Structure formats: structure tokens, C-alpha cells
Amino acid sequence: MTDNLISIAKILNFHGVKGEVKIGFSKGREHQIQALKKVFVKKDNEYIELNVSAVRFHKHFAIIKFKEFNNINEVEIYKGCDIYLSKEDVEKSLENDEYLISDLIGMNVFDEDGSEIGTVTAVGENLANNLISVKDANNKEHLVPFVKELVPVVDVKNHRIVVNNIEGLIS
């Protein structure tokens, strides 16, 4: 089961004395956090299943109350722990044109004419957008902005990405 879990947030601290925790999560994922019902927390290499009873937002953080905890002493040991969801639950919460990084790594990359360019080796981000790193047959890395105009096709089922290889993008 543990290889089917994906980290989605981190417990940054406890909040108040009634067993609530303050979590950090990726910007734009509020809808996913709001919908949480059951999560897993990794503590000492063990995954503990927890049930969410309430979620609210404060500044850029979420405050979560778990049914299993009623006071600060019960939650403070989880400070710094990651919060996980099953891969299936994460996939259900993805919007159109959203993908798991783990699904993109290793995908074959082709240009719009069908010529193979290489393989996705990493996904990163800059201030403007995500980037895919594509390694070609000569082991040269190319960074491609992961935007619809340059990456019009992402076919997870067939493990294939098509890149609009405009002049100078991949040379």
C-alpha cells in the first residue's frame, strides 16, 4: 500500500490546544485540501491512517482537525510529518491538463512530425510555469516549458508526449 501513496502536504505545526494542525500545501490545491476525508501520516517509517473532521484556511495555510486527536499533546509529535493520499484519490482530484509528476517521468517525447526527441527525466518549476526536462539520444538535456502551446499532447495511457518543437527549443 505504501508505494501507492503520494505526499500532498506537510504538518508544519499544531494550532491551538484542541488537536488541530497547521499544514502547508502547494498553491492552487485548496480544493483538494478542502475535500480531504481520509489521509495517511508517515511517522517513524510507519503510515498512520487519520480521518479529517474539519478543514479551514488561514492565510496561506490550512488548519485541519482529525477525529483521532482532541488536544495539543496528541498532535505535537506529528510536527514535520508529511500527509499522504492514495494515488487513486489524488488522480480523482486532478483537473483537465493536470498530471502526476510520477506519471510524466520516463514518458517518450516526440515532435509534431512523429520524430522521437527523447525521454522526460524530470519536472521542475520556475516562476512562470512548470518545465519538463527531456534527455535526447546524445544525453543532452533540454528544458521545455510545460504549457499547452508547446506541449499540446500528453497521453499518459500510451506513455507519450508531443512537443511543438519551435525553432531553438530543442536543437
Number of domains: 2
Largest sheet: 6 strands, antiparallel, barrel
CATH architecture of the largest domain: Beta Barrel
Q: SSE string, helix = H, strand = E?
A: EEHEEEHEHHEEEEEE
Number of separate strands: 12
- CATH H-tier superfamily of the largest domain: RimM
Number of helices: 4
Question: If strands are numbered along the chain, what order do they take across the biggest sheet?
Answer: 1-2-5-4-3-6
Quaternary class: single chain
Q: Could you list the spans in which at least 5 consecutive residues all have pLDDT below 50? A: none
**Distance between the amino and carboxyl termini:** 42 Å
Q: What Rg is obtained from the alpha carbons, in whole angstroms? A: 20 Å
Find the structural class using helix and strand composition. mainly beta
Give the mean pLDDT: 88
Give the percentage of residues in beta strands: over 45%
Under CATH, the topology of the largest domain can be stated as Elongation Factor Tu (Ef-tu), domain 3
Helix content: 10-25%
Instruction: Tell me the overall shape.
Output: elongated
| CATH class descriptor name of the largest domain | Mainly Beta
